[in-house]
C-alpha cells in the first residue's frame, strides 16, 4: 500500500480542485498546502494529509506550536485547531519518533515515520483481536477473514497513514477481546488509552460493564437477596467492577486540561457537537439535493459512498447484536454519536471503528462468491480513495 502511493503519484496527476463537498474546492487547489509545514515535509509525504497536520504538530511541538493552522472562535479568539484532537496518538508518535531522530531524521520526518509505525502496530493488535473474537463462531478461516476484511475495507488505508484510526482500532478491539476473556483490568486500561485517542473510546464503558455483569449469577441474587449479591460481588472481584471507571477518569482528565478549548474549536470551526441536529439536517438536505440534481458527479459519488458506509454499519449492528451484545452496543454508539455530530461527512472513515461491520462481512464471506466479489469491490474502492488521499484530495 505504501509503495502504491509512491507509484500512483509518479504516474499521473488529478484535475484540481475537488468538488466533493461545498468547501473542498477551496482546500484542494494546487497550492493549498503552501505554508503548512507539517504537510509539506517530503519524507513520507504521501502518508500525511488533512488531520495529519494536527497529529504531527502536537507530536513535534505541542498543542500551541505556532506552525499549526489556527481557527477563529465566535468571540474572535484565535486557537490552534490541534485542540480538537486527543493526545493519545500524538503522544505515541512522539515516543516512537524520539529514537528515530538518531538516524538523522528531522523532527517532522521522524514524527511522520513514527505515526505510520504506531498506526501499523495498532492495526496488528486489532487484527489479532478481531480474529480472537470471531474464531469461536467462524473458525480459524473466518477469524482470518474478518481481519482481512478490516484491512481491505475501502477506507482501510487510513490504518497505515498518519491518522488515529489504526491505534484506536487496536486499543478498542483489544479491549473487547480482553472483555471476552474476562480480563477486565487490562480491558479497562486499553479502554482508558482508547479514550485518550478518540472521544468515542469512552463508549467502551458499556461493554466493560456488560462483560462484568455477565459474571454475576443474577438468578441466585433474585432468589437469595442482598446477601447473595454481596457474595457474588466478592466472588467475582468487586475490583473488576471498579476498574470500569478508568476510561471515565481518562476522559475527565482530558476534559480538565483540554476540554474547554477542544469543545470551542469543534463547535465554532468544525461545526461539530453532540447530537447536532441542525447541522445534520442541513447536510442531509445537501446530500439528497445532490442525488436529485446529479450535475456534480463528484459530490453525488462522495455522498453515495457516505450513505453506503452508514447503511452497511447499521445492517451489521442488527445482525451481530445477539451473539456479540457488548461489541454491538459499542458499534451502535460509535455509529450514532459520530454520524449525528455534524453534517454527513467522513462517515466512511468513521465506520472503521464499527467492528460489527467486519464480523457481518466475515459471515457473508463464508459464501465463496461473496468473498471474491467483496474483495474485488473493496480493493478497487480502496485504490480509488487511497489515490485521492495521496494527492491531498478529500476522502473522509
The gross shape turns out to be globular
Biggest beta-sheet profile: 2 strands, antiparallel
The portion of residues forming beta strands comes to: under 5%
Strand order of the largest sheet: 1-2
Number of helices: 18
What is the structural class?
A: mainly alpha
Give the number of DSSP strands. 2
First-residue to last-residue Cα separation: 18 Å
Q: What series of H and E elements makes up the topology? A: HHHEEHHHHHHHHHHHHHHH
Number of domains: 1
Helix content: 55-70%
What does the radius of gyration come to? 22 Å
Can you give the mean pLDDT?
A: 94
Residue windows where pLDDT falls under 50 for at least 5 positions: none
Can you characterise this structure?
By secondary structure, the protein is mostly helical. It has one domain. Helices cover 65% and strands 2% of the residues. It contains 18 helices and two strands. The protein has helices at residues 2-11, 37-40, 52-61, 88-100, 107-152, 165-180, 184-195, 205-213, 218-224, 226-235, 238-242, 246-268, 277-293, 297-320, 325-339, 347-350, 356-364, 368-390; strands at 70-72, 78-80. The chain has a two-stranded antiparallel sheet with strand order 1-2. A hairpin with a 5-residue loop joins strand 1 and strand 2. Helix 3 (52-61) packs across helix 5 (107-152) and helix 8 runs antiparallel to helix 15. The longest helix has 46 residues, at 107-152. The radius of gyration is 22 Å and the shape is globular. The two termini are 18 Å apart. The model has no long low-confidence stretch (mean pLDDT 94).
